[in-house]
Design brief:
With about 750 residues, this protein is α+β, with helices and mostly antiparallel strands. The protein is about 40% helix and about 15% strand. It is built from 23 helices and 20 strands. The two termini are about 50 Å apart.
Length: about 750
């Protein structure tokens, strides 16, 4: 009888030696953690650096309705034997550098999704794959199987350099000065595991773009962004990069700043290494809310940060890897496997013309095109994955890409093959049209699996897609090009800041019940590499988001002037007009009249069951807080209008006032005699809410309180447009956190209240 071999034995020499050793070490660490011989804090960082995350499990509920541990990994004392907590599933993130994927790799990804996960491959906004409901004990074998086809999960998460992203059209784009893929590849594996990237206080993100005006690599919101450039030097054309640093989205977005207009190609890797050293040395370690590179620049100033990077560059010991890859920049080149040819005269399959219009893009190589595979919510099944791999083998070879808008791309498709490619995709239900249109919506996992999710971004995106297609707006010549993006919380994983219409999940208290809402963000710019960020207009009840989308897009379509962008349109009609549209939709029927508004999309359970009761002594206090927090919301909106009118000082004062008003509203319960002096208000807020931890929540800790303290300390500083934009973002987040704090105060005063909101965890 043949004894079945382990995956480690079966793969043998196919495993790269160094990667195999890393996986063996991780497997040992898992065993040690199970025996209680490694502290959870250390093990948590270890597994994160292997891409293994905890996740929300069924929104914090077992199927039998009982509470379950929301983390997918153990904590506390595990020395007493096996724990059921160990068996709770988690999420595995898998790095796909610059999105390039082979057919064999997609086969293996599909296999492991089927065997270890829920049969779903999810494409992320960083061109990664994520698998959900994966047991930690299965991850070493999964990692080995991926490593055997050239995929690593190392540093997919944790305080590391995350997946290096790049334009999915690189190498075939007609506008690029040169292909950025060899540089993205070299930087990926130079920084992977590098000594100078192992001591960060937070993550570090890198992106490459072939051109500046399109979305491409979205370099504007990255810690390090590189845009391809050429320059004639001594009669010869030299390659280099426009380098930007310090960008980021998150709760408060920051535009990247120009570091160098033209960095020679041979300086790319050493610059990244020097920047890593500066980040490790000067990055925040205690306050994780301020631990990204953008805050290094804020702390030190741009000029000093640049000086330190250049100084560090001068100190580096020469490394042959900096330039070795430059001797052969064609190692990553792709070649077609089918001859170029014209599109057949016909007859063509039903639906082909619509698909070709939205999903087919020209290459600079004559006779070849790219075909976008639209993935609803970024998902495809393991069966679809294997079938798609076979489509690639037949028509394009190993030229697939994942994209930052959660789709996939087949490159080097001969135009002569397009009808057959379309028919093949139809058979596996991957021939949906509408790529890049308003119905092609980006969404983070939200409350489906993310522990930080507040509102259901995925279910909202699915509903919006359905509604937009049913209404025909996705084919409206004036509206179809708009971008919609949704995040389940303030962290902008769905990139809502750079959408025409962005949504981030929040919750509000309506008539004593918590109701899922989404903040509407308008004015973001997807082009120019995510060139500018929008601002929140107001919170819309989740079930009414489709209505605000319909109203805004239909009005834009009817009133658009020439080639006016959506951002230009919203500026012309004014934020006051949009705010009025939002306010119309904020009024909800009572729970008794229509309970549907009190649950989230895709989840029939009540978002919150709260019996506020009557006659309680806190009733008047609650009413006062509600009024004052609403006034604070209004002041934030007024600050936005003042900013649009270029009244920077007045806008800053109004945003600061909103924060102080919120703090006073909360603090008055502890000190009924509190005055209106900001010094007293901030001091009392610190005493009663920050020092006691009352203001802290499971999602942000105390970081939003720090926004108030900093705004108070810096209120006399000169206001610039950029500083006011950030202050308004921070004020919005602080006031929203005040809403959540108020809700928790009410619950604490009502022992009978049972809070089962989807954004809570056991």
């Amino acid at each position: 009888m043949t004894v079945p071999r382990t995956w480690k034995e079966a793969l043998g020499a196919r495993l790269p030696e160094a990667w195999g050793r890393e996986i063996d070490i991780f497997e040992t660490q898992i065993e040690l953690r199970k025996k209680g011989k490694i502290e959870e804090k250390l093990f948590a960082e270890t597994r994160l650096r292997r891409g293994a995350y905890g996740q929300r499990y069924d929104n914090g509920q077992r199927h039998d309705g009982e509470k379950t541990q929301a983390l997918a990994f153990p904590s506390g004392d595990v020395t007493k034997g096996p724990s059921t907590l160990w068996d709770a599933p988690g999420m595995q993130r898998i790095k796909i550098p610059y999105g390039r994927l082979t057919a064999d790799q997609l086969d293996v990804l599909s296999d492991v999704a089927e065997e270890y996960s829920d049969r779903i491959l999810h494409v992320t906004t960083r061109q990664d794959f994520q698998l959900h409901f994966v047991h930690i004990e299965d991850t070493p074998d999964m990692h080995r199987r991926l490593a055997a086809v050239g995929i690593t999960t190392r540093e997919a998460c944790g305080n590391t350099v995350r997946n290096v992203t790049a334009c999915p059209y690189a190498g075939v784009c007609k506008d690029e000065p040169f292909d950025v893929v060899p540089y993205a590849h070299a930087l990926t594996f130079f920084l992977l595991g590098h000594d100078d990237t192992q001591d960060f206080g937070r993550k570090f993100k890198v992106a490459f773009s072939g051109c500046k005006d399109q979305a491409c690599g979205l370099t504007n919101f990255h810690d390090l962004g590189a845009i391809a450039r050429t320059r004639v030097v001594d009669g010869q054309t030299r390659r280099g990069f426009e380098i930007v640093i310090g960008g980021g989205l998150g709760a408060v977005p920051q535009n990247a700043l120009l570091f160098d207009e033209f960095l020679p190609e041979e300086e790319l890797l050493p610059l990244a290494q020097a920047m890593s050293r500066v980040f490790a040395r000067h990055g925040e370690r205690q306050n994780r809310a301020r631990a990204r590179f953008k805050f290094v620049i804020k702390k030190l100033g741009f000029d000093e940060t640049k000086r330190l990077i250049l100084e560090e560059r001068a100190k580096l010991r020469p490394d042959p890897r900096w330039t070795a890859f430059l001797s052969d920049l064609h190692g990553a080149d792709e070649k077609p496997i089918r001859p170029a040819g014209p599109l057949p005269a016909g007859p063509l399959p039903a639906g082909f013309d619509r698909w070709r219009e939205t999903n087919v893009l020209p290459q600079r190589q004559p006779g070849y095109v790219m075909a976008v595979i639209t993935l609803p919510l970024g998902d495809l099944t393991s069966e679809q994955g294997r079938a798609l791999a076979n489509v690639a083998r037949k028509f394009t070879g190993d030229t697939m890409r994942t994209t930052v808008d959660q789709n996939m791309l087949l490159r080097w498709v001969s135009e002569a093959d397009l009808p057959e490619v379309y028919a093949s995709l139809q058979r596996i239900h991957l021939a949906g049209a509408g790529a890049g249109t308003i119905s092609d919506i980006t969404a983070c996992p939200g409350t489906d699996t993310c522990k930080l999710g507040i509102s259901s971004s995925r279910a909202l995106a699915a509903q919006l897609t359905k509604d937009l297609r049913a209404s025909g707006l996705d084919q409206d010549p004036n509206a179809k090009h708009l971008h919609i993006k949704a995040s389940g919380c303030f962290n902008s994983c769905g990139q809502h800041h750079v959408a025409d219409l962005g949504f981030l999940g929040v919750s509000r208290n309506v008539s004593g019940r918590r109701v899922p809402h989404f903040q509407l963000v308008v004015g973001g710019q997807w082009t120019h590499n995510g060139g500018s960020y929008g601002l929140a207009i107001g919170a819309v009840p989740s079930k009414r988001v489709p209505e605000i989308v319909r109203r805004l897009t239909e009005r834009y379509s009817k009133e658009r002037v020439g080639a006016e962008t959506f951002g230009e349109f919203t500026t012309r009609i004014g934020k006051k007009t949009i705010r009025a549209m939002v306010e119309e939709l904020q009024k909800l029927p009572t729970y008794e009249q229509d309970p549907s508004h009190y649950s989230d999309w895709g989840d029939p359970r009540e978002y919150t069951i709260t019996d506020m009761g009557e006659g309680e002594c806190a009733g008047e206090v609650v009413a006062y807080v509600e009024v004052e927090l609403a006034a604070a919301d209004r002041e934030i909106f007024e600050a936005q209008i003042l900013l649009d009118e270029k009244k920077n000082d007045e806008a800053a004062a109004r945003a600061y006032s909103a924060m102080v008003r919120s703090a006073r509203a909360l603090t008055r319960e502890n000190n009924a005699n509190i005055g209106t002096d900001p010094e007293e208000i901030v001091a009392e807020f610190r005493k009663h809410f920050f020092d006691t931890g009352v203001f802290f929540d499971p999602f942000a800790g105390g970081k939003f309180a720090q926004y108030l303290f900093r705004a108070h300390d810096e209120r006399s500083k000169p206001a610039t447009r950029e500083s006011v934009h950030q202050l308004i973002e921070e004020a919005n987040l602080f006031v929203d956190a005040s809403h959540q704090c108020y809700t928790r105060m009410v619950l604490a005063l009502r022992p009978s209240v049972v809070d089962v909101a989807p954004n809570t965890t056991a």
